[in-house]
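in:
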C-alpha cells in the first residue's frame, strides 16, 4: 500500500506532533514514520491503519491513489 508521505507529514505537523510522538501514539517505530513520510518504504496496511487512527483520519486519507493505480475512481491499466 502506497501512502502520500507529504500528506502524512502535513497532518502530523498540523497536529503539532514530532516524528517520535506520532510513532508512540501509533505504536510503531519512529523509523517507520520516517520511511513512510520519505517514501523509502511502503508501510504494511496495518501500520497505515495505526497511523491513520493516531492522526484521527481515515486510511483512505493517507493513501496515494495515483500510486495505487486509481485516478478519479477508475483503475489505471
Amino acid at each position: 500500500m502506497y501512502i502520500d508521505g507529504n500528506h502524512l507529514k502535513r497532518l502530523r505537523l498540523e497536529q503539532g506532533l514530532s516524528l517520535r510522538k506520532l510513532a508512540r501514539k501509533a505504536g510503531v517505530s519512529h523509523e517507520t514514520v520516517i520511511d513512510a513520510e520519505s517514501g523509502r518504504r511502503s508501510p504494511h496496511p496495518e501500520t497505515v491503519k495505526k497511523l491513520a487512527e493516531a492522526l484521527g483520519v481515515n486510511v483512505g486519507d493517507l493513501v496515494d491513489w495515483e500510486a495505487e493505480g486509481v485516478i478519479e475512481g477508475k483503475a489505471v491499466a
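note: The two ends are 17 Å apart (CA to CA).
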